[in-house]
Amino acid sequence: MLRSRQLKQFAAQCLAELFGTFIMIFIGNLSVAQYTFTKPRINSNFGINLSYATGVYAALMVAGPISGAHLNPAVSLGLLSLRKMKVTQCLFYMVGQTVGAFLASAMVYFVYISHFNLYDGGIRQVEGPNATAGIFYTIPATGVPNWNCLIDAVVGTALLLTFIMALGNDYNDLISNAAKPFAFALMITTFGFSMSLNCGNPINPVRDFGPRLFAAFIYGFKVFRVNNYYFLVASIGPIIGALIGVWIYEGYLILMKKYANLPGIIHVDAIEQPAVRGQSMAHHMITQLSSETTVST
């Protein structure tokens, strides 16, 4: 049985994940909607990538102090596999994340409801030249099969979790706590620039499933059947990748515990070897003292 105090904490963490995920998806999908409706002359997703990174940063600031700001079921399940979370706690996290993504999608829809009507004439379409359902979820690029998207999702999320584990590692003294949210937002931007060509960078199951669930109420349940049930790839692929990523890093951590921060590490900013640098400094001090002695005499 869960204690009342623990249950209250899980509920608070659920709300924090809901709030944080809402902010992330709301800001990100607003940019997708604007891109769809304005059809910019320059076919670039720079604005979308930057908006999602900003949304992630804002979500980290909001949810971080209470829940740690997972904002992603793949992250929560990866940490659960390492026994860093309890099963019930993980379920609370995922419920909050899914509800937050659902509500954010509803807010995007109502904020831009007039533009939806102007764009498709009031006839909501899942596919075709005037389709708007893709505003809410990821879609494979033309000619890219689902198996290729699965590889994309697994590799991308494995890399994401490796980076998250490295950022949160106590042995990593190369970055301050204040800089970690910015580093994470920068990583999300990089993913958008480098891995969104195949299928929109599906590294977060709730970013696809929550909005797709809302879209089902507007466009019908065809949104789950489209592209040969691609939603399964976007939902399951990131979870597989997260489990691979955390356990690869867990294995690497064995080396880190043994060899991290030992004397003799040559950092990339080191101009000279530590021994040589120490000898140079000692020589400089002796020379300086000799010159001072000569001047004084």
UniProtKB/TrEMBL annotation:
Primary localization class, coarse: membrane
One of the record's GO molecular function terms: glycerol channel activity
Lineage: Eukaryota, Metazoa, Spiralia, Gnathifera, Rotifera
A GO cellular component entry from the record: basolateral plasma membrane
Keyword Hydrolase: no
Highest taxon of source: Eukaryota
InterPro entries listed in its UniProt record: Aquaporin-like, MIP, MIP/Aquaporin, MIP_CS
Name of the protein in its database record: Aquaporin
Family indicated by similarity: Belongs to the MIP/aquaporin (TC 1.A.8) family.
Membrane topology of the entry: Multi-pass membrane protein
Keyword set, alphabetical order: Membrane, Transmembrane, Transmembrane helix, Transport
Entry's localization field: Membrane
